[in-house]
Fold this sequence. Notes:
By secondary structure, this protein is of the alpha+beta class. The protein has helices at residues 2-14, 36-45, 56-63, 75-81, 85-91, 122-133, 178-190, 213-223, and strands spanning 16-20, 29-33, 94-97, 102-105, 111-114, 141-148, 153-160, 163-171, 195-199, 205-211, 228-229. Helix 3 (56-63) packs across helix 5.
Amino acid sequence: MRNIILILILITFSCQPNVKTDKNLIEDILILEVPFEKQLEVLESLGYKLNGEVTEDEMLKGLQSFVEYDLRDDIKKSIKENPYEILYYGMGLRKYDEEKKEIIPYTNKCIWYDLEFIDQSSEYITLMKRMGEITEGELSFTDMSLSIDKDNFEWLSFKVNGIKKEWKLEKVNYIADSFFSQFTYLTNELKTKGKYTYFDNGSQQFVIDYATPQEQKEFNQKTGLQREWLTSGKHFSEPKTD
């Protein structure tokens, strides 16, 4: 009995309830504040571990861009008040290593992105490589190249698991958000065990991940986030047809 009481006390102090007021909501909602260290522990248990070249301090510095300027000095407080949301975004960040002269992802599990980053066509190839990396080998993208047809549309040619494919994008200098929707059709066609997932916090920034149905269920249960399956036509435009 004494052990049970002690556990309840620990839970109370580690996850303090907080009333969140939002003028857009009919009623105030009760949320739990979860310490940064606890969130990191839970995400690590789900497989989100920082790469050896990325320190915890570097990650916290990178997360400052997700909060208001006047809140950046105490980023852990913002993380605590927004359980798993900010920290999950951080798991998809990357940094430039001055010594190695290369870009290193914070983890190899997910991708944080903003469509405005596709300001040059080569970004589609970079993104496709990353979309393969987060599948941990289930999807392998190779031989990627871009071409432009007579109507000024861009085409992305590649191989996935050795199978030749070609996707129609948008006209030159236009962003093809349908690029992400294509991956939904691809996993359905190849009958992969995992599927791509999607999460955002209401902004134009988002996180793309990859999970099996069991992993998706466990992630949402442990974090309380409402991560969805990446769905064509819902999160991004439908792909172009010939």
